[in-house]
Design brief:
With 257 residues, this protein is an alpha/beta fold. 38% of the residues lie in helices and 21% in strands. It contains ten helices and ten strands. Strands 6-7-8-3-9-10 form a six-stranded mixed beta sheet, sandwiched between helices. The chain has a four-stranded antiparallel beta sheet with strand order 2-1-4-5, with helices on one face. Helix 5 packs antiparallel against helix 6 (148-161) and helix 6 packs parallel to helix 7. The structure holds adenosine-5'-triphosphate (ATP). Adenosine-5'-triphosphate (ATP) is lined by residues 11, 17, 35, 37-43. One of its GO terms (molecular function) is ATP binding. It comes from Oceaniovalibus guishaninsula JLT2003.
Length: 257
């Protein structure tokens, strides 16, 4: 369980970007975080894996307080948090298998990684996951030869190789065409349920958020102002989340699509 309580993030001396935010994600659920540009969605995700230092408050993952961890303890905790990125963050000149195995860095010795002598179990697990997401045939192909959708599947498998306790996805479909985007969202939803894995997705496309997630968290000016099932995201809720903001047109466009 992820339990965030009273989380505040202030960059420098400015206004807080996250304002006393509370959020609990339990069990197997895929949660979309929506909101206009600047609402604080990325900051929230980055506070969870400590890419951004929270100013105050608590973030607990399965009983471990993450905000106070340093050094080795922080590195260990980060392994338990998988990340999927908008730009995939693959190493282009490496093969799919090598990229996927980089999810095990920190678990295996540096020597094993450099010489690509991956443990048998890791290879078996990689094939299992690559088969599951439909990229096993590309195991020995360079990452830069793949399409966007295939590259994001590599990104997902790499994150799953960590055997994470939670998966955070920061606009994972924003660089993809609509059909591929839907396929990746469907895949993540299915994986959340199959692997018993909570997933938090920062997403601009409200239509996809409604279709592929179990719960929608709407942010505005650093606060959560909506937290409910997708079906409850009606026009009033959309207005409250987006009215008058630069994200309004984009979200409305996505809804109409
Ligand atoms: N490193 C930083 N230093 C200073 N201010 C920052 C930094 N990162 C983000 N901010 C500010 O914090 C606020 C929230 O940004 P954040 O990226 O979390 O919003 P967001 O909801 O993810 O937006 P978007 O949808 O555009 O990605 C914005 O006003 C942004 O300018």
């Amino acid at each position: 369980m992820l339990k965030i309580a009273d989380l505040v993030k202030r960059y420098g001396t400015g206004e807080p970007v996250l304002k006393n935010l509370d959020l609990t994600v339990e069990g197997t659920s895929i949660v979309a975080v929506i909101g206009s540009s600047g609402a604080g969605k990325s900051t929230l995700l980055r506070c969870i894996n400590r890419l951004v230092e929270p100013t105050s408050g608590s973030i607990e993952l399965n009983g471990v307080e993450l905000t106070s961890l340093r050094g080795k303890d922080l590195r260990m905790a980060r392994r338990r948090i998988g990340m999927v990125f908008q730009g995939f963050n693959l190493v282009d000149r490496l093969t799919v298998m090598e990229n996927v195995q980089s999810g095990r860095l920190g678990y295996i010795s540096t020597w094993a990684a450099i010489t690509r002598r991956y443990p048998k179990d890791d290879i078996a697990r990689a094939y299992e996951l690559m088969e599951r997401v439909g990229i096993a045939q590309y195991a020995n192909t360079r990452a830069d030869a793949l399409s966007g959708g295939e590259r994001q599947r590599v990104g997902v498998v790499r994150a799953l190789m960590q055997r994470p306790e939670i998966l955070l996805a920061d606009e994972p479909t924003a660089s993809l065409d609509p059909r591929t985007s839907e396929a990746i969202m469907g895949l993540m939803r299915d994986l959340a349920h199959e692997l018993d894995l909570p997933i938090i997705i920062n997403i601009h496309n409200v239509t996809e958020a409604k279709e592929y997630t179990d719960r929608i968290v709407g942010m505005r000016y650093g606060r959560i102002i909506f937290d409910d099932a997708p079906a409850a995201l009606d026009e009033d809720a959309m207005e409250a989340i987006y009215a008058g903001s630069p994200g309004a047109d984009r979200a409305a466009g996505a809804q109409a699509a």
